[in-house]
Amino acid sequence: MEPKQAPPPIDAEREAKLKAAAEARAARAAAKAKAEAEAAQAELDTPKEPSPRQNDLERYVRLIEDTVGQGTVKESGLNELNADMPMLVIASEQWPEVSLLLRDHGELRFSYLRNVSGIDYETYLEIVYFLLSLDNKQDVAIKLRTDREAPSVPSATPTWSTANWNEREIYDLLGISFTGHPDLRRIMMPDDWVGHPLRKDYEPLDSEV
């Protein structure tokens, strides 16, 4: 039986250097974390400059409430992730009157409907109309909300004809009915298709697809 080899002698100086290097790395990491935390706190403590779009938002709300009626605007705010675009949640029953106001009022003139999207928030469905004023170089997002059991909102197609196919797509994929739409039928799925594929509770007939 061969005798066990003795472990190599410990290089005390090398061990000390390694320990000092590890401690230095830990200190740098702690200092960096502290600096980041202090910077984040300083950002929270520093009051934000008011957005230049705040006046636009307040003007839109005031014009709608004064013209259509108090309570027409359910919520309002600025989308910080999208250049502070004003966003308004409108009472669905007032949407036809509000849409004409947005399009025709001299201070607004939102004549161009850029896009329409639908979202399933599980407890309710939401439709968002993105409007652009080519005259004033301004934009706004109008949101309508409806329940999931019998989802329905007035169509914007009589005001902006470009809403036609967008609303048909939302009707097809989310099952939201648009009252007053001139030709509301499925645009992507067959007429006898069961369910609406963009709903979060949608169960495909074939789970492999």
Automatic annotation (TrEMBL):
InterPro entries noted in UniProt: NADH_DH_suC (IPR010218), NADH_quin_OxRdtase_su_C/D-like (IPR037232), NADH_UbQ_OxRdtase_30kDa_su (IPR001268), NADH_UbQ_OxRdtase_CS (IPR020396)
> What segments bear the compositional bias annotation Pro residues?
1-10
The superkingdom of the source organism is Bacteria
Q: How does it sit in the membrane?
A: Peripheral membrane protein
Top-tier EC class: translocase
Q: Which GO terms describe its molecular function?
A: NADH dehydrogenase (quinone) (non-electrogenic) activity; NADH dehydrogenase (ubiquinone) activity; quinone binding
Q: Where is the composition biased (Low complexity)?
A: 27-43
Keyword Cell membrane among UniProt keywords: yes
Q: Which Gene3D superfamilies does the entry mention?
A: NADH:ubiquinone oxidoreductase, 30kDa subunit
Which intervals carry biased composition (Basic and acidic residues)?
11-26, 45-55
Protein name from the UniProt record: NADH-quinone oxidoreductase subunit C
Species of origin reads Paenibacillus paeoniae
